Amino acid sequence: MTGVDETAETYCDRSGLDELRAEAFPLIAVSVVASAWLANVGALPNVPESSVILPVALAISGYAGYRLLSRGVWLASALFVFGLLTTAVTAIWIYPDTMLACLLAPVVLVTGLLLGPEFGGVVALLGSGAVVIGQSSSQGVVTAPTAAMALVLIWATAILSWLASRSVYLALEWSWHSYLKKRS
């Protein structure tokens, strides 16, 4: 291996995307919170008023993550993803027999965008576990058809997120390699 290749591998890691993630974070957070509010407004006739807690929890997670951006993109993103995941899992248990388990798929996508596909896979595993536990619980929190649909959506999202991000990582590696090769 030449010195250029070693240097390219040293500098070309996924943290090279931190600046892009920092710029995308507010857009993603606002989109998620706006979607939650719109879904809540659309479901108001069928859902109890206490459901406003879920969009508020997402808004708090988004705001807290945004405030932490100055301390690091990873920390802000991890807090936001944790808020999304706990809110989605809580919603599944608060409102049984609904399609809310399918909301774990966008959480996997947001995780893949903000933290990388490896963390998207971890969140997919956690979300799948929550769905399986909800389906097998004695309370029947998640119905079998909803569980099947949620699992397909979660894993399809994880795989598609990984496939879509591969080209970005390859382009980043190529650009670093070319840049360092030109410098030497």
Topology:
Elements: H1 3-11, H2 18-42, H3 53-68, H4 73-94, H5 104-115, H6 117-136, H7 144-183
Helix pairs in contact: 1-7, 2-3, 2-4, 2-5, 3-4, 4-5, 4-6, 5-6, 5-7, 6-7
Task: Provide structural commentary.
The protein has 184 residues and is mostly helical. The protein has helices at residues 3-11, 18-42, 53-68, 73-94, 104-115, 117-136, 144-183. It contains 7 helices and no strands. Residues 1-12 have low confidence and may be disordered.
Give a short summary of the structure.
The chain is mostly helical and 184 residues long.
Radius of gyration computed on alpha carbons? 19 Å
Count of alpha and pi helical runs: 7
User: Strand count, sense and closure of the main sheet?
Assistant: none
Q: Report how far the terminal alpha carbons are from each other.
A: 15 Å
| Average predicted local confidence, pLDDT | 82
Structural classification: mainly alpha
Helix content: over 70%
Key phrases:
184 residues; mainly alpha; 7 helices; 0% strand; disordered N terminus
